[in-house]
Amino acid sequence: MTSRRPLWFSAAALAIATATAAGVSLVTAGLPSGTTTVRAPLRLVDGETVGLIMGGSGMPIPSTDFIDEVLARYDPTTPIFPGQPVFPVDTVIPVFTPEGLYPATGVKSLEFDTSVAQGVTILNSDITTEIAEGNKVVVGGGSQSATIESLEMRDLLALPADERPTGDQLSFIALVDVSAPNGGILERFDDPNLPTLTVPSFGITFSGATPADTPWDTVIYDQEYDGFSDFPRYPIDLLSDLNAALGIYYVHGTLVDFTDAKIADAVRLPVSADYTGHTEYFMLPTADLPLLDPLRSVPVIGNPLADLLQPDLEVLVNLGYGSITEGWNPGPANVPTPFTDSLFPTNINPVDVLAALAAGAQQGVSAFDADLSHLSLPAVAAALTSSVDGASNSLPSLLDLANDLSLAIAGVYTPLLPVADTLNALLTTLPAYDTALFVQELSSGNLVDAVGMPIAADFGLVPVLLLFGLAGVS
User: Fold this and answer.
1) Strand order in the sheet with 49-53
2) 412 vs 102, higher pLDDT
3) Residue 261 half-sphere exposure toward CB, CA atoms < 13 A
4) Distance between CA 221 and CA 291 in Å, rounded?
5) pLDDT at 290 over 80
6) Dihedral angle of Cα 159, 164, 167, 172, to the nearest 10 degrees
7) Number of Cβ atoms within 10 Å of the Cβ of 1
8) Spatial CA neighbour of 7 closest among 51, 53, 52, 62
9) Catalytic sites, residue numbers
10) Neighbours of 424 (CB within 10 A)
11) Which pLDDT tens digit goes with each residue over 378-388?
12) Cα(244)–Cα(291) distance, integer angstroms
């Protein structure tokens, strides 16, 4: 089962924050040779290449470990796979950005839009300062910070040509880009023919795609089945939506822990034939469906059952991306692709789907048999004993129950607020969006899409909104 380390649930590095507040220099020994990590305002020399590294939601100041891991994997001294973009840096500066994502990062934390706006202001100031001092800049960030990068690109592109950084002054590295043109959830639900979708109760705006046609070298790494950076192209496929929602929990951000071997499996995504921009797009495959990860956690029989179901479920989930074999959309990665472009995939032959399901059934049975053949009675007994012991040890005492009840009563407001905001989104924002979709499709004379598009939107958004609400309660 994939280990879970979502960027947006990461805890802020308090030790780093303390050191930063005290003006202490942070030097990282684990970085590639020739690279030093320092904290502003301490500087080395002008004319160097500076890496400005941001954290993800819940990590306002990226820790040195996080920076080490990001650089070693996604900006290494030597490419891990042929053609991997590399941006050598001399100095790395951890950049403070608020990284709030209410309610996932806490009931009293900043909402996404407010946090991102403040992050863009901070990042722009840092870029401007470094370039004014004669330095080149490489910006790196993931999850929310990828959206900060995206909006900063837009702001820079809006400047007169002689005021914006040149191509040799600025580069970007974005991990699990929530705004990826063909897969980012903030783009998938951004229809240019409709008013911008916003969820006021959560403070989230579906702000569209990361610009593809920029003068700056950019690399974007996304993860297969991550519901934030790789949302289904056809959300009418409910299985695909549920898998993506669980992918937010199980997959999003785990790429920071990838081995070189897993990174070497990165798939370069296609771009449009006429694309002349400077952005390269990569997808990092995910071995197991997040949809089956809860089942895999069941002792003894969970993993065999998941292996039995996965081959066929994978086909059905991948249909939501317009594919049979991959969990990402095969269209150009640089082209903004909202789900409203079409309700169903038109590039898939039903005969091929049936053939894939038949082959998947055989593969699942073989995997199930193989899993069972490797089970031994001592191993089964040990697993069952461990589960029973764990359950026994977790039984609370009367005092524990009393304390928990006291805390629950004292903090009753805290979980109710995210629940109320979730209901608000489901009962006000979503119906309004559905109505706009219905009117748009009906006015174009397409009755099927007028009915289907609102259903697809609900299938896609409801699981994600519920996940946010539950994250705020937990």
Assistant:
1) 36-37, 91-94, 49-53, 136-142, 170-175, 217-223, 279-284, 267-268
2) 102
3) 1
4) 22
5) yes
6) -80
7) 16
8) 62
9) 143
10) 16
11) 655 555 555 44
12) 8
User: In degrees rounded to 5, what are phi and psi of residue 257?
Assistant: -100, 5
CB 213 within 8 A of CB 156: no
Rounded CA separation 42/25 (Å): 7
Q: Which of 208, 215, 205 is nearest to 182 (CA)?
A: 208
For residues 473 and 284, what is the distance between their CA atoms, to the nearest angstrom? 31
Amino acid at position 184, single letter:
G
Which residues sit opposite 401 in a β-bridge?
none
Exposure string for 176-205, b = 16+ CB within 10 A, e = fewer: bbbbbbbbbbbbbbbbeeeeebbbebbbbb
Q: In 3D, which of 190, 228, 145, 207 has the Cα closest to residue 468?
A: 228
Per-residue pLDDT tens digits for 19-44: 333 333 333 333 444 454 444 444 44
Alpha-carbon Rg of the chain, whole angstroms? Answer: 23
Name the token pair of 257. Answer: 């822990």
The full length of the chain comes to: 474
- Closest to 170 (Cα-Cα) out of 269, 81, 50: 50
Contacts for 100-104 with beta carbons within 8 Å, 24 or more apart?
100/57, 101/8, 101/57, 101/58, 101/144, 102/202, 102/203, 102/472, 103/202, 103/417, 103/418, 103/421, 103/468, 103/469, 103/471, 103/472, 103/473, 104/8, 104/9, 104/57, 104/58, 104/468, 104/471, 104/472
d(CA 146, CA 179): 7
Handedness of CA 321, 323, 327, 333 (dihedral sign): negative
Residue 47: the pLDDT is: 81
Task: Give the CATH number of domain 7-341; options: 3.40.50, 1.10.3470, 3.30.70, 3.30.1330.
Answer: 3.40.50
Query: How confident is the model over 68-102, as pLDDT tens digits?
Result: 999 999 999 999 999 999 999 999 999 999 999 99
Beta strand pairing call for 267-268 and 279-284: antiparallel
Q: What is the mean pLDDT of the segment spanning 312-330?
A: 98
Task: Give the whole-angstrom CA distance, residue 234 versus residue 49.
Answer: 42
The token duo for 439 is 């009117």
CA dihedral 346, 212, 258, 1 (to 10 degrees): -30
* Distance in angstroms (rounded) separating the CA atoms of residues 62 and 253: 14
How far apart are the C-alpha atoms of 415 and 154, rounded to whole Å? 36
d(CA 9, CA 27): 25
Single-letter residue type at 126: D
The token pair that represents 300 in the structure block: 């003894």
